[in-house]
């Protein structure tokens, strides 16, 4: 009976299961559920941005945000160069880590820590896009989005208490949004002095850690703890506004900051040659330092005089006494036409002993070419007195890498006054009706200064500075700056044209010490001009 019941039960189970599978199959094939609807198919352009981001979480930032630019060219470059970059980066990492490890291991009674293997794998990082900021300062700001899902092989051997343990980092993933600032921008290759790297948000770092052949990160709860520790430690060091600073070159040398003042006294000239038809000359002297963009300084004109006496003094800022040269040129003033050159000569600053006045008599030459036979002719002599005074240590600009740093006024500045420095950087969207050859004209306290002309350019760049030594702060003064265009062709029709002007109150620069702004030009449709003002006190 027992055997019969077992056989019956087994047969019943087998038959019932077979019948159930067949019925279920036919029901699945021939019966459709009524609550299931066909999917809606529509173009991606008709989908809202939130739904699109949910559908495509890895969509590049340059598609989602128009402020970001594509970097396909950079990704291609890195992909091609990655085998070489891998070796270079690993070599640099070893050299940086070696002294740090040697300094830290004695604290933890560890005998040695060495890299058994160090390579970054065959998968390079990719840049999802980059945003570039433009400012009025001498800097370049970039914000790339970096993603790296790599397969590095990093194996570290730790030896302590007679035991040797190897730790291997595998399956590394890093997602970061750094801000890279290159500043200050300088006229020497690679054209920037420092690199500053900050993180705009906490980075995502994911990796596996194998210890004794087992993945330590698989321990429950350890993964989240390690993630939080890494994010917090990196944020403490590099989360904006904190930054990692890497110096590329000495900014003081790159920017050639002032190192002293050259005092020049033009005393007199003797035995000058006649240039005018009536048997006389109207001489004056122009002087400047080489390697400077500032306009030349000029003496007054001595009319009808071949042995003029000036006794006029000038102060010139020195940036490189080893290479700069004082250039002096004597001209004959003409009321109409070009002024005639009467002679010239130079004084190398390296031949001047600091803090010792020197009176020099210079023979006037036609050119500076020592082989020019015209130089053998007598053109007269020029007597000048020069004194080079280097800045003392406390007068040197120590923060040359900071574009906002304000230098002190040079020695000899009135105690109650200061030095007003006006730098005309550039203009934008200036356009004349008949010609566009712009230059900037400055009027301050009755004095006029001008920048150089830039031919056929709506966005001229001058970068010229002008200095005014004042007895008192210009709190109630105004600066008038006008952009003009002069015709490049000879003619009486439209020789000069005004492209716009701006009238600036100087009370703010006295209070703030430095202002660097772009001003909208009055009487110009879209024109703007960038002017930097500095008030330097003793």
TrEMBL record:
Keywords from the UniProt entry: Calcium, Lipid transport, Lipid-binding, Membrane, Metal-binding, Repeat, Transmembrane, Transmembrane helix, Transport
SMP-LTD domain ranges (all copies): 67-249
KW Nucleotide-binding (keyword) present: no
Record domain C2: where: 240-362, 402-519
Any one of the GO BP annotations: lipid transport
GO MF annotations, alphabetized: lipid binding; metal ion binding
Entry's transmembrane regions: 12-31
Domain of life (superkingdom): Eukaryota
One protein family per Pfam: C2
SMART domains: C2
Assigned protein family: Belongs to the synaptotagmin family.
Name of the molecule in the record: C2 domain-containing protein
Gene for this chain: Vigan.03G292300
